[in-house]
């Protein structure tokens, strides 16, 4: 049976008389069953409107209830009134059914849609959520922030107006003035439009106004909304003081733009823009930076970058990635633009791919073009890679029966050099190649044996004459390899836990006949870095143009110790070496000079690696390349990291390459003073008072952050970062200095300051991307919220 609101109210008269409501599931006590208890739920949905809202029941409980059927009800003493998602608590409450009007006085508290309001008096038409609240204090549970107002007028369930409002995420227990507050003469909220408008708004920090405006518009949720974003302020040794004021334009649900006027005290005014779009089968981003008159360079400067990708026909894919800057000095003057991982080599390419399904075979047909812009510098020239214009290819792979597997790739490439880089000393031309292999894998769990036949064939036609005087040539090089390995393991114990230890020996034999290739072009081959992965490769060269002759055996063994309970690797040790049965004669250089390792010694260098996390809070790892010929270490990398808890990490790395470089890198994030939040506290959106050691003050915790890269060969610091972070619980301050080398005797220094008002916004330049990218183990002091527009953090 369904109770109407008045029928329920009439029935609640008996509650005031002391008769307990009956619950069939409650245990009997003295012949009577105990009264049902209401379970608080802060995630109750808002009541529906219309007829559905009118049918929602009212739940009213109090120490005393007086009611007139179909007219009204009055409740006193620990009153709790519920209807749909609205909960009202007070000392006294009267409800008029005809007007749907609730009047509450004395310690009034409303919980609705993740917000809590408290004050002395409330009048509210419940279903329409229309009325007013006098002198309320409010709290937004999702953000851990709130404030108070002189009055709140609830216009309807989605709109409200606050008069003389103050908002902050700092403690509001009366123990002291909040460190930051946002004050406004009037605030209008429209949740349907996801918009808030504050008139006469002033943002105060430590009592001083730092931002003000006659009218400020802001979003009410994480959803996107057009409007001005917080300004960014930075200091750069090349550009001076920089101010960026971005405007976000929410064009449509699948399109948006950011337009950011930019001002430099040294260079002048510019504009940074970004446009993003996303359709059902395509999407992309266009960035454009313009500096119409650079006063330092005395010219107009610009940079643009367009990324686009899409799908067609169900299994087709196409993409474009184009970038360009106006001049060679862009990478030095604007190092924070991050237009490329290699700032002096800007690549652009476009491709079309079509997946193929031929029986049991999978394949791919593709067309690609690739070009480069090289940013040269008189201090150090850059050798440009070849451009491919175009690259047309087909790949196939799959099973051939009887357990055989095959793969094949054929391509046509037109190799050219970027504009201004073709000085006549490097060959350009066409190449057609075929890479094919056939293999069969034998084995069971614990061992494998895989014989493999491979073919590398290429045909060339060059624009200039090759070393032998011809303009066309071809070659075909077969390779046979036999790969064998074991995976042995045993159960053991140690360090108070069950462990599993493995022993994994591996042998790889490779036989490739010698074929002279020094007269042929070398468009894309380089000696691979000598490491644990490349030493098991049949060819020591990358690319297609060079195939190393080989009659060699590679032997190595690795042992690992893992936690039997969770599979986490606790220890690893490996060693590997290659033995040459005959000297290697093919190199990647036309003059025959060996490239990479020594090729005329029977034994290659020995590679050793080790890593462990057995010692609590410590991670140790290292690799070493030892030369038997000179009985000395050729290369080594040794690192250690100590992380005993949240926001505590120190790492050190030593890198050595004989005759080339010797570097020491040190990075850290460490508390300097104050209380550090526990692991359980870290994930909360607002740890008000946690970092401050509780109470109402905003005294907090200081953290030191930094990284130094010191060149022992040059006796100087190359790149460095040094900064401090201050977490006051309701706000975070960051000051970071970064020095980037842009040449042998040049460097750019940037100063970044950021004020993060927890529950509101971040002001200033953003050093978080720099800290996360450069300090191993760096942890954010707060969990990041999703911003309306993505950033480069």
Number of domains: 3
The CATH topology of the largest domain: lipopolysaccharide transport protein A fold
Question: Considering DSSP H and I runs of 4 or more, what fraction of the residues is helical?
Answer: under 10%
Using the alpha-carbon principal axes, give the shape. elongated
CATH architecture of the largest domain: Sandwich
Rg of Cα set: 35 Å
Mean pLDDT reading: 83
| Proportion of residues in extended strands | over 45%
Poorly predicted sequence stretches spanning 5 or more consecutive residues:
1-53, 590-598, 683-698, 786-793
Q: Roughly how many Å apart are the termini?
A: 58 Å
- Summed up, the helix count is 6
Main sheet makeup = 26 strands, antiparallel, barrel
The CATH superfamily title of the largest domain? Lipopolysaccharide (LPS) transport protein A like domain
User: Which CATH class of the largest domain applies here?
Assistant: Mainly Beta
What class do helices, strands and sheet pairing give?
A: mainly beta
> How would you describe the oligomerization state of the chains in this entry?
single chain
What's the number of extended β-strand segments? Answer: 47
What attributes does this structure have?
793 residues, membrane, lipopolysaccharide transport protein A fold, 4% helix, 26-stranded antiparallel barrel, 6 helices, disordered N terminus, mainly beta, LptD, disordered C terminus, six-stranded antiparallel barrel
